[in-house]
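Researcher: Let's continue the batch. This sequence belongs to ISL3 family transposase, and it's 407 residues. Same format as the previous ones, please.
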Amino acid sequence: MSQPDLISITGGWEGYRVAKTTSLNIGNQKRIEVELVPLQRKEMLCPACGGQCKGVHETIKRTVRDLPILDAQTYLIVHRRRFLCPQCGPILEGLPWLGKYSRVTKRLADSVARLCGVLAVKHVAELFGLSWGQVKDIDKRYLEQRFGTVDLSGVEVIGMDEFALHKGHRYATVIVEPYRKEVLFVAKGRGRESIRPFFEKLGHDGCSRLKAAVMDMNGAYEEEVKANCPQAAIVYDLFHVVAKYSREVLDRVRNAEADRLKDDKKARKVIRTSRWLLLRNRLNLKGDAMLRLQELLDANQNLLTVYLLKDDLKQLWRFKRTEEAELFWEQWYRRAIESKIPQLELFANRLQVYLQGILNHCLWHLHTGILEGINNKIKVIKRMAYGFRDHDYFFLKIRAAFPGIPR
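Model: Same format as before. Here are the structure tokens for ISL3 family transposase:
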């Protein structure tokens, strides 16, 4: 058996045979060129209508890439035929192993796309000897085929959160189905107009079916949910409320106490450098860290008060009955107001407005933990790609990372 015949059998280029092979060395790179000519067929069927074609309108040469043969880059010179269909006119012959206008074979595209799921585009491009743009386009087409459309039927609960798109306070929004851990929608921006297309895709029936939405205290998210799904319960997440408390109460009280002790440089330095000590969960502190925290709180009444009330605030999300949670809140709110600490009083009064969304957690035990996990994964995706200029491609990568648990 000749070399061309052997390559034809192993190559799997259905409908074609190898006319000639050429081995080249270009620099340090080995290259194989395989010229493919079409086999004679009794039937020439139109790929559009399926009808019998009259004959061949013309034959054109096209160079495409295939999977490497051993360590050599493989180029196919394909003599592609354009059939003459009585119904459709001149039309390019359909091949099971090559797309209509593709410059790479389907199996090479599949291999590239699979590797892009675990490697950076740059590294996949280097592996196959393709350009960054070629690999990105292949991967994007693959992702569009698999994740370009989302099945929103049956969605009753959603989670919403923002993530940093670029440096400089530019953000995007991700919407997920928290039970299935599926990303449903990603959009540039974090305003009402950014997430409105999601509710348009959800449609009237889908909006009427929505029962709850968990989010941080983002007024734009809440307003858009209420405008489209007035029956849906708004649920505020513990993580974001406690993070807000840490920024607006703990940090500000700590700074105020440090300023108050400006004449005592040693005490002022201790308070100034205690930020992470105060923010960390007490259960995670050991040894010297726990001792330092205890000494700090014993020496400063205001810091002790806001620190203890932060821990107590977390308890609000552990209740399963609304009445018990509401009673606990009243007690917590009274203690905050009676503390006479301005930063704490201000926070408590502001939080009072969002009470219903906190109490709804008793009915809907939802949290944005899955969203925090998504945000961490997004950071990894950005690092692997060294940032994304094509937002649609970036958002498809996010959807691919969280396709959801099958129903």
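Researcher: Any comment?
Model: DSSP finds 16 helices and ten strands in the chain.
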